Amino acid sequence: MARLAAEPQGLRQRRAGGRRLAVVCLVLAGAVLLLGVGAITQGVPDVEVRFALDAVAGRAGDDVTAYLVRQNRLPRVVAALACGAALGGIGVLLQDSLRNPIAEPGLLGVAHGASLVVTLQVLFGVSLPGVARPVACLLGGLAAGALLLAVNRRITDPVRLVLTGFALATLFSAVISAALVLAPSTGGQTQATVNRYLSGSLSGLAWPEVRVLLLWVGAGLPVALLLGRVLNLLQLGDDTAAGLGVHVGRTRLGLLVLAMVLLAPVVAVAGPLSFVGLLAAHVARGLLGSSDSRQVLPVAVLAGALVTLIADQLGRLAFEPLEIPAGIWTVLVGGPLAIVVATRAAAQRRAAR
User: Inter-axis angle of helices 326-352 and 276-288, to 10 degrees?
Assistant: First the structure.
């Protein structure tokens, strides 16, 4: 007891924070694992856990049910986890680098810019190899992000930033609607595919698409997880960060590009899964009771994976045999949260004046 009392308070706080981080990560990882196993066993037909695990390991033969588990449910679960993890990291990157609690790809219009590229590609029958679609989405997202930054010189104003992002999202949505009308007639199936994609859907994904997604996310996410210290410095304000040796403009631009790199494969395979980044980042801060980006980033990655998997399973099972895209569920939950966060941010700014 005497030794503990003699320890500096800062050291005790860091140890307590480290224990809390470990517990939160273990709980979230356990929830992800349990829900993932449930996702490959539930549906039509339901299968036993042992059979599902044998099918995943290739020990269940080649009957129809084993094929369903390996080629339909498993890639969908893996894609949901990868998309959610990427979006969770993106939420922290955008919010902390812009010092904006409601920064999120859907609210800033960049997801719609990337979605526009895929929509045009599908509607006009442009064939792209698997790895080229994320590259096209990256270019579309970067163009939208550049336009957003060009309009908003003071990117720390959360209300103006989101209003501009909403305007850009509306503009891109209008272009998408025009493309749906003007595209060559290819039957209702193509437009139904586009509509499902624009809602944010993980249905129908196959392993080739999932492998490309894992390649991109696996390359970009570890880089994001190493940037917690830089994000902490940016949270202190541009002047303070610059005084501590950070080149604010270049650093912020690099972080935004990294966010777009992570977003590109998600939009390419699943469409705009709105508000996942917003939800994951705020859930992480709430669970940790801290805004330390070094701790928030890994928790947000796990929270994003869990949120996306829950949304996809709700969409697949809640109204079976009908399916509601995961993106609709994330909007239903994330939209009200965005309003609450925006209201609090506005109140805090008024109080600070």
Answer: 60
